[in-house]
Write the structure tokens for this entry.
Amino acid sequence: MSSESASPAMAAPLAVHMSGINKRFGAVAANADVELRVHSGTVHGIVGENGAGKSTLMSILYGFYQADSGSIAVLGKPVTIRHADDAIAHGIGMVHQHFMLVDTLTALENVMLGAEPHWLLQKADASVRSKLDALMQATGLQVKLDALVADLPVGDRQRLEILKALYRGAKVLILDEPTAVLTPQETEHLFKVLRVLREQGTTILLITHKLKEVMGLCDRVTVMRGGRVVQELPIAEASIEKLAEAMVGRKVQMGRVDQDTRPVGDVLLDLRDVLVRDAMQVVRLQGLNLQLRAGEIVGVAGVSGNGQSELLDVLSGLLAPQEGSLQLGGQQFLPQRWLDPQTARALGLAHVPEDRHARAMVMDFVAWESAVLGYDGLTEYATRGWMAHGRMRQATARMMERFDVRPRDPELGSSKFSGGNQQKLVLARELGQSPKVLLVGQPTRGVDIGAIEFIYSQLRAMRDAGCAVLVVSSELDEILALSDRVIVMNQGRVTGELAIQDCTEAGIGLLMTGGGQ
Ligand SMILES: Nc1ncnc2c1ncn2[C@@H]1O[C@H](COP(=O)(O)OP(=O)(O)OP(=O)(O)O)[C@@H](O)[C@H]1O
């Protein structure tokens, strides 16, 4: 389906026209006969389930992959894009989900890297600096140019990536799930910048799972499913429900399912008076108390970086606090002999880490190896002390079936799965052991709307079966949709605790900034 909305931008040649694009990976048709038409000076959304082929299409446009067949035209001219340098030469810039910056260089040096305007470095430095200052002024993308990238917060790194692309002359900017790593405030700022860029004539291609963002920012949207384009429409004709249905091919139920107060059971985990200082002696958690009861989902709300990650680490045995105590499975743990991950698992505690790549999977492993990670000592996976690889493979195939991991291939490398499918595999591994306590960090980061619905239903089913579930999420919508009880964190402390019936977005927002205590 396609319809044009009247706007002056429509008269200009298409910024990007990809036509008849096909790309296979073995048996998988990642892109099948894809047609993408992006008008100049617009923000164009690309949505679709995990594995629908969005990243593949953008990787073809940016020269990471070559299409098996099809053609590309940029600003009305047919082009051949063999690698990223070709894309940059044609005015295409891309900001990846995982930033491509060198940590040990400054922001300025990162921009100059590979694009030095003068062989005399000092001259180059001055000319890049003044151009960047002008760009920052014009766009609102402020970054400290002399700071080391390693010291920059995530939002600044992203701004730097965008600056770098613009500095290299990007007229078309591809953003792959740019808000997945941002706080709500940073997201708002990014959108302001993107609107400014659009006014200045930049075309923006936005891959996202957040349909609210599509509705709020985009001019048009293309929906992909199973490698194909299934719909392309102006935003005025779209709605969240319509897009969700086009993405997954059926109606999707989002948000809260019930608002009842439910009886909760015994305290299964009891954390008291925890103090955590990091290596630089900065206090990360202070005076922290938390009880988790059987049959409840407790949501931890807060702007990222306010102690939520440290809380998950302490509870899962990855980090011993300097002070405090923990009761779990009838045992008490004190700082000098804190819980370790293996004991945690043995006591029925499962953990879905926030950072899937660093903590939850080993990207160099094939899927079945990642799917038994941490559980390879189970009797189920061992015969007389030997690891039973056959049974691990079979168990992985069952996990893939139950959690609809695509493709259903236990032998495929972990890195070859799309982000959402990696997340489903990790959830399948952790939920599969029927834990008594379940810790989940950012349960649906990078996950599509159909899979979100499924993951929520699985977490609710765990709760209903008597599991104590702790969900840490930077998405307030997610906290409100899942939790029975909400605690809010700010600067390492709990600033509020509310039953779900007493939660309002404004109230939680205030507690998140440390106000309203
Ligand atoms: N290098 C690769 N080797 C094998 N298969 C791949 C490779 N890259 C992608 N695929 C497969 O191609 C399909 C499309 O993947 P792609 O990453 O483009 O989806 P996506 O829509 O971007 O998903 P997500 O929203 O989860 O990021 C998937 O089935 C994926 O497993």
Q: What stands out?
A: Residues 1-6 have pLDDT under 50 and may be disordered. Residues 25, 28, 30, 48, 50-56, 406-407, 416-420, 448 surround adenosine-5'-triphosphate (CB under 6 Å).
